[in-house]
Amino acid sequence: MRRTSVPVLSLALGAALTLSACGGGGDPLDAGSRSGSQDAGTSSEAAAGTGDGEVIVGSANFPENVLLAEIYAAALDDAGVEVTKRLNIGSREAYMAGLEDGSINLIPEYTGGLATFLNPEIDVTSSEEVLADAQANLPEGLQLLDISAAEDKDSLVVTGETADELGLTSIADLKGKEGDLVLGGPPEFETRPNGVDGLKEVYGLEFGEFRSLAAGSNLTVQALKNGQVDAANIFTTDPAIQENGFVVLEDPESLFAAQNVVPLISSDVVNPAVEEALNAVSAALTTENLTAMMVEVVSEGQDPAQVARAFVDGI
Predict the structure, then answer these.
(1) Rounded to a whole number, what is the distance in angstroms from the first to the last CA of the chain?
(2) CB under 8 Å to 240, separation ≥6 — which residues?
(3) Is the separation of the CB atoms in 188 and 203 below 8 Å?
(4) What is the 3-state secondary structure (H, E, C) of 56-74?
(5) Do 170 and 75 form a contact (C-beta atoms < 8 A)?
(6) CA 217, CA 284: separation in Å to the nearest integer?
(7) Same CATH topology for 11-152+259-313 and 156-248?
(8) For a 10 Å CB count at each end of the chain, is N or C smaller?
(9) Is the pLDDT of residue 1 over 70?
(10) How far is CA 29 from the centre of its chain?
(11) CA distances for 310 relative to 38, 40, 93, 245, 315, angstroms
(12) Are 192 and 198 in contact (CB under 8 A)?
């Protein structure tokens, strides 16, 4: 199945996106800026690149990725690795620029999203094939460590009422009905191959309107609940799906590829201690325990660093 090709944004644009995506807290990729708490064993000194044995852990700007970054940081700290955290950087376009220029050198990634970003023409969907495609197209100097069983996929979600009213169980069921509907999702969903363009290419869907919403934020949930959007792109581990009785529409054409959580890291900071610590995290992560941790962070308002510490202590 051939997907619509969307040009990958340049690294220069990615760097610019970083500034806008982080809100008023400054640029997390700037050596003088800090995001997130600094745990015991975390470097408090700013650095443009890596120091001797230092690993700079970044995250995208949504709660689950911040949680995963905290888990990586805690595991590395336990392994005696010097860690700096630069969290809430922004979208993939932004943090890939940081990996390229060395201002960060580790980030939690998702195999399907990364593979599609690197190769918009990707036409495989299984975990093994998606991983292989991503590895084949990685920029020089970057590598993937062990993937986890934990998977958080993009999905198209509607309320239970909308599903009943329109007879929806799969994305394909939207055909012929979507022209009167508003689709919500993060800004990049409008241009990514598995977003608005992919829905048109794969399912023949053209929504009446696209409304830009923050990735992984409560704003998306509220917009769906309040009827400001009729369908929304929500990650499958988001506890709001179950809490609100939302319906995840099936994806029979596999528009959304496998999305296993995996560490993406600069090769020059990989050593046995780093690799062992991060691979142990991947071995322990499952979709179930990741979803449970997201309930603690999103629904219960717990500190991601504390939730991460409890998880790492249990490995």
Answers:
(1) 40
(2) 218, 221, 234, 246, 298, 299
(3) no
(4) EEECCCCHHHHHHHHHHHH
(5) no
(6) 26
(7) yes
(8) N
(9) no
(10) 18
(11) 16, 15, 31, 29, 9
(12) yes
- How many other C-beta atoms can be found within 10 angstroms of the C-beta atom of residue 222? 14
Task: Give the separation between CA 264 and CA 225, rounded to whole angstroms.
Answer: 35
CA-based torsion, 49, 51, 53, 57: positive or negative: negative
182: number of Cβ within 10 Å: 18
pLDDT tens digits, 216-252: 567 889 999 999 999 999 989 999 998 999 999 999 9
CA-based nearest residue to 250, from 266, 229, 236: 236
Tell me the CATH number for domain 11-152+259-313: 3.40.190.10
* CA–CA dist 31, 38 (Å, integer): 15
H helices of the chain, where? 11-21, 63-78, 92-101, 111-118, 127-136, 160-166, 196-203, 218-225, 240-243, 272-284, 287-294, 304-313
The pLDDT tens digits of the residues spanning 103-126 come to 999 999 999 999 989 998 888 888
Instruction: Report the relative pairing of strands 156-158 and 83-86 from DSSP bridges.
Output: unpaired
Ordered by start, the domain boundaries in the chain are: 11-152+259-313, 156-248
Q: Give me the CATH code for the 156-248 domain, please.
A: 3.40.190.120
Token duo for residue 230? 């009729």
Q: How many helices (H) and strands (E) does the chain have?
A: 12, 10
